[in-house]
Amino acid sequence: MAKRTYVAMISLFLILLLSACGSAEGSKIEKLCLKLLKLIKTYKVMAVKTETDQIIKMGGQGNKGLPEDGIPIQSTIDAVHQMEPMAFHQTIESVAQITEQYYTDKGLYMTNPTGDGWVKAP
């Protein structure tokens, strides 16, 4: 059951990613993601590194003292996902903050944002 949920979550993520792409490049990404979905079902362990660069703009609300060009945000996620038994470990680095998370059959745990130990997610 957990494996189905995990594959469904990855599938949903990829669908959301595809919906954001409306260009020729989006078509290439769509083909790549469809191939990836087929392969995911055969993997037992996956290592993933994701690097994201974003520009956050205020839109119609006005900049309210923020830079006109927006605020650049960079993040990096290093993760290892295991299918059976379902588990993962990941480190997320963004805006001078590092968060570590892991999931096992006992639940989801992450480093406390205040920097004091670990907390269990609800």
From TrEMBL:
Residues in the signal sequence: 1-24
Record keywords, A-Z: Signal
Source species, domain of life: Bacteria
Pfam families: DUF6612
The name this protein goes by in its record: Uncharacterized protein
Lineage: Bacteria, Bacillati, Bacillota, Bacilli, Bacillales
